[in-house]
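User: I'm preparing a small set of examples for a lab meeting where we compare how different chains pack in three dimensions. I only have the primary sequence for this one, and I'd like the structure in token form so I can line it up with the others. Please keep the answer compact; I'll paste it straight into my notes.
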Amino acid sequence: MAERVTKDTFEEKVLKSSLPVLIDFYSDSCVPCKKMSPVIGAIADEQTEKLNVYKVNTNFDSELAEKYSVMSVPTIVLFKDGEEIARKSGAEKKAVLEEWITQSLDK
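Assistant: Understood. Below is the structure token output for the 107-residue chain.
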């Protein structure tokens, strides 16, 4: 399961992480976000050794959404060494998201 991060924990958990980090920017009222939740949870559970996975609720942490120019949800952002390396908007199937993660990290 993906843990929720806030503006207070974002720097420590995401920007200072030794592993790459996938962030799911979501909203409680977003239907596609709800469909993505089990996909994000499965990736979090299956890739613990190579990737940290967190969620940011844009209803409560709009400052983070604004800082990272998240204009729609769901938006998935991949960070490596504290820097954004890739971004994907909209709901995706698990296999598509896993392939995107692999390709993004191999660049």
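A couple of notes for your slides: The chain is about 35% helix and 25% strand. The chain has one domain: 3-105.

User: Perfect, thanks.
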